[in-house]
Design a protein that fits this description.
6-stranded mixed beta sheet, binds nicotinamide-adenine-dinucleotide, Aldehyde Dehydrogenase, Chain A, domain 1, 2 domains, about 20% strand, Aldehyde Dehydrogenase, Chain A, domain 2, 7-stranded mixed beta sheet
Length: about 500
Amino acid sequence: MRTIGHFIGGREVKGTSGRTADVFEPMTGEVQAKVDLASKAEMRAAVENAKAAQVEWGNTNPQRRARIMMKFLELAQRDYDKLADLLAREHGKTVPDAKGDIQRGLEVVEFACGIPHLMKGEYTEGAGPGIDIYSMRQPLGVVAGITPFNFPAMIPMWKFAPAIACGNAFVLKPSERDPGVPMALAALMIEAGLPPGILNVVNGDKEAVDAILDDPDIKAVGFVGSSPIAQYIYERAAQTGKRAQCFGGAKNHAIIMPDADMDQTVDALIGAGYGSAGERCMAISVAVPVGKTTADRLMEKLIPRVEALKIGTSIDPSADFGPLVTRAALERVKDYVEVGIKEGATLAVDGRGFKMQGYENGFYMGGCLFDNVTKDMRIYKEEIFGPVLSVVRAHDYNEALALPSDHDYGNGVAIFTRDGDAARDFAAKVNVGMVGINVPIPVPIAYYTFGGWKKSGFGDLNQHGPDSIRFYTKTKTVTARWPSGVKEGAEFSIPTMK
Ligand code: NAD
């Protein structure tokens, strides 16, 4: 059986803790590999190694750092198909979707290639008599990323590319459920010319995460995963004085106005609700038609589309979506469907009985669709993270606007309408971090920032875009007057620029 160790000091090393976790192949349900789970001591050793390597890397000029990123892009293109296949087999999503996962990560690497420009400081000549002021951005040192199972290529790249480009050394603790692609990405960075020790992958579970949080040499932690863990990491990282940006779960609503193009809307809901088996933090999980006629028109078109969804193996290119990540995840989603029925929602399409012929042990289920969901129900309040879409009927626009705004989560939201006034009002007023107008998955492009509000994001800087450079650097400001400057004699009160 394949074993997956850690990637430390520029090469794969075997774990020494004696603890391992199973890595499944969701499409067959088989255990395909064992991943080592790091002990506190192994994490400490990786951090020490990274700390030693960072000094020279931080002093390497940004153009040379950018060139390594450029070379990495080239190597990732070379290995694209291989990476996508590995990703699909460990995660369960289809190969075309796995390619999207890799691509959205590479776009942030492309952004990081602009580091010589992005890290430029500010300069003011003559800020006072003979005084010039300038600021510079400096790397933090060793920083860490803790990432979820659902984007095993994209989210690690969102973290390590800007961090490393800024001159930091990086310790990645990816999800123990699909660690193969993060390991492969680290090897590609070394092949691209990254010095050993600058990008390390330490596999593990809570023990490895807690070792990161307690390590005094780790200066910042970027987390993506479920909200309770995001909040735990944010609070514990703050206690030890680390920078932290922690992104959590979601319940993304799509508001459907009476004037929406219903065919376009249904296409959008089907793709965004069920793609990747609903295991996306930006999946649409709640549809809110405004008015009874809109709701009836929506359901008439939506029900046959959900019934016709094609579930397939991860390597079937014609599948709409594949299996869920683990049996536990599958059972959890099915339990939520049962909860919804008990709470009184109408199960318009029930995909729980789906069986994949020839792959009976795989973690498959069909798409489920609930109608008449209300905001007091658990299936509305909690994140299900599976192929389940809930329809909450709103009487008018204001009621629809209030639903995502009052919800605990605030990651993404979309409105479908032809009315520019309504769209503009919605974008301005809705209490959610990322908004789509006739766009169901409004993940901003790499040079904007990504981040949710409320329980979907703890911390004050977003991922990628300009915020990522701010997060992974500290600003130093220098006020300079040379001896030849104006001589004013001793000054006992606070200097001002009067
Ligand atoms: P998870 O919270 O279970 O795990 C995320 C990471 O935390 C993993 O590396 C895991 O090993 C670690 N972890 C798990 N339990 C821990 C504990 N008790 N203590 C310390 N560390 C722990 O999340 P997941 O199931 O891997 O991913 C799915 C979740 O991630 C969903 O809630 C989804 O919405 C969210 N997500 C959010 C975003 C975003 O940008 N907001 C993006 C992708 C996924």
